[in-house]
Specification:
This protein has helices at 13-25, 42-52, 62-65, 68-79, 115-127, 165-180, 190-194, 203-210, 254-268, 275-281, 289-304, 310-326, 331-347, 356-365, 371-382, 386-399, 404-416, 420-433, 439-450, 454-474, 479-491, 495-508, 513-525, 529-542, 545-553, 564-573; strands at residues 4-7, 30-31, 55-60, 83-87, 103-104, 148-152, 156-157, 185-187, 214-223, 226-235, 240-250. 56% of the residues lie in helices and 10% in strands.
């Protein structure tokens, strides 16, 4: 597949060809729709090429601005953070693309040093990893230092206590974060790296699968106020050890120890740190080991807890509140507190703080954090201010292109705004980014069914069920996993198994309203409308507004829309 996809209107085909030739001269693979094979469907090839491209160049013109096709392709690229814009006439760009940088090539005739063209070339170079970029057509190829690449596997918890898992996971995540600050190094995301957790690992196989040159693995043993960390850096090509070390320290030295490990890896890879990167690696958000430990515990609840159980949010709130009492300037703890408070208020219908004040505090302390903006966007939507929420979530997307929470929020608000194609893109991205959670995959099933994509819905259901089964192997009473598993089984035609799981789950956790909601959706798929309404009755009459809002746009419930009992239930809920 080509690195670059070019989107344009027919009237600018000559200019699009000129752009394509200039990019090929720089050594990139380029595709545009004059290369459509005769034996394949147009839409199928466009989708395939858009998905595979690492950069999407949109050639804006008056005709392109009015084209649904060009706008759709540009919107997809914007959502996936791979949009490069250029204009070839004076026509205004459509919203929201008029708020994004755009190179002016109105009078460009192919000069490689033209300011507009240099802007396009620089953007593409930033988007396309050098390891994937093709060789230049002539002359020696200069390898960019960023061709160094690494996957940090989750460090093993050797403490002999499963309750300490949060600490070893936190150490792994912070090393990933530190290394990601090094511009000369490509680092596999946390979510992808953690998909290998608990599995027997073949280092060369993992490296080949992820396309990285090095793998870091290690272990953490925490006992009282002492911590032992072992780490080894392995070169994938020959399975050799580039660097290995064991550290025995007091827990109070944990921040210094993390810095030391990250710097040792950089040195072993023979990379040069920029001055600002040296400072960034040492930035932890807090100097308090106690506050940091509490934040790690709360984050573990957030990542691995049962979403349908309010005790999850309650525990997160207690931990984060204590963390910010210890260090009032701990922005990440304020951000996670905001999420937990908002979820408890709007998803569980509890009284108390809605997370807005905590989100504002987090943004004040660290304007680069994306997640507080996602919390604020959700809160605005829940209080009937959807247009403001959509603006806020755009800010979150700009700040957090790697944040699963941000993409899930963007998907939900797009669904509320009846923009199902956008919702599909955001949820698909969240599923791709986080290979452990079931919620985004379950919602992707619904969105794809609403869009008429039955095959895509089945693929999402298979992913959802596999993830749910993995979670349930760790906790058989995880209501969130049970709920989405049953929904996935309904899509996959496993009615008998779905019924069995549903009956068991209702005995274990009959008051889990989110779980009951999802079971009602499954019953609708089985054609049991009245039984589904019976399942929904306690949900819609006692649930917070967010679940009622969701019920109004949820395609799973469309077969019930004309039923007098369902209409009465919604009226009672209002």
């Amino acid at each position: 597949m080509s690195d670059i996809f070019i989107s344009y209107a027919r009237s600018t085909a000559a200019k699009a060809q000129q752009v394509a030739e200039a990019l090929r001269a720089l050594g990139y693979g380029v595709w545009r729709d004059d290369e459509l094979p005769a034996h394949r469907a147009f839409a199928e090839v466009i989708e395939e090429r858009l998905k595979a491209a690492k950069a999407v160049v949109v050639v804006w013109s008056a005709e392109a601005a009015a084209s649904e096709w060009v706008q759709s392709e540009a919107d997809r690229a914007r959502a996936e953070r791979k949009l490069v814009q250029l204009r070839v006439d004076d026509a205004p760009l459509p919203m929201p693309f008029d708020r994004i940088q755009c190179a002016d090539l109105t009078n460009w005739s192919g000069e490689p040093d033209a300011p507009g063209w240099k802007k396009v070339a620089a953007s593409i170079a930033d988007l396309i990893a050098p390891a994937a970029a093709p060789a230049a057509p002539a002359g020696p190829r200069h390898r960019n230092p960023k061709q160094a690449s690494i996957c940090v596997l989750p460090f093993a918890n050797m403490s002999g206590d499963p309750e300490q898992e949060y600490f070893s996971d936190g150490i792994s995540e912070d090393i990933i974060t530190d290394l990601s600050k090094v511009s000369a190094l490509s680092v596999v995301s946390r979510n992808t790296a953690f998909s290998f957790k608990g599995r027997s690992i073949d280092v060369r196989g993992v490296a080949g699968q992820l396309g990285v040159g090095h793998v870091l693995e290690g272990s953490v043993r925490k006992a009282g106020n002492r911590v032992r960390i072992t780490a080894q850096l392995i070169e994938a090509a020959d399975d050799s050890h580039v660097w290995a070390e064991r550290y025995d320290r007091d827990l109070t030295d944990i921040f210094e120890l993390q810095d030391e490990i990250s710097r040792a890896i950089v040195a072993a890879l023979k990379l040069k740190l920029l001055p600002q990167e040296k400072q960034a690696i040492g930035r932890r958000g807090t100097d308090s080991v106690e506050a940091y430990n509490l934040f790690l515990m709360a984050r573990q609840q957030h990542l691995a807890g049962n979403y349908g159980d309010p005790r999850r949010e309650e525990a997160m709130i207690r931990m984060c509140q204590r963390a910010v009492e210890i260090d009032p300037a701990y922005a990440q703890a304020w951000s996670l507190l905001a999420y937990a408070q908002s979820s408890l208020r709007y998803n569980r219908g509890r009284d108390g703080e809605d997370g807005r004040a905590a989100a504002d505090k987090a943004m004040q302390l660290d304007p680069t954090l994306a997640e507080p903006h996602a919390v604020k966007a959700k809160n605005l939507a829940e209080t009937g201010r959807l247009p403001e929420a959509l603006v806020e979530v755009e800010t979150a997307l700009a700040l957090g292109p790697d944040s699963v929470e941000v993409f899930v929020t963007a998907g939900l608000l797009s669904m509320y705004d009846h923009r199902m194609a956008d919702a599909e893109r955001y949820y698909a991205k969240a599923v791709e980014m986080d290979e452990t959670s079931v919620g985004p995959a379950g919602l992707l099933v619904t969105i794809r069914e609403m869009l008429g994509d039955a095959d895509g819905a089945r693929r999402a259901a298979e992913i959802c069920l596999a993830r749910a089964e993995k979670l349930l192997a760790q906790d058989r009473n995880n209501g969130n996993a049970l709920a989405f598993a049953v929904g996935a089984m309904a899509v996959l035609g496993q009615a008998e198994r779905a019924r069995e799981w549903m009956n068991r789950a209702l005995l274990v956790d009959p008051d889990n309203l989110l779980m009951r909601y999802n079971f009602a959706c499954a019953l609708v798929r089985f054609g049991e409308a009245q039984e589904a309404i019976d399942m929904l009755a306690p949900v819609l009459t006692t649930s917070p507004a967010s679940m009622i809002t969701h019920a109004r746009v949820d395609g799973d419930l469309d077969p019930l829309r004309a039923d007098p009992r369902f209409i009465a239930l919604l009226a009672q809920a209002d």
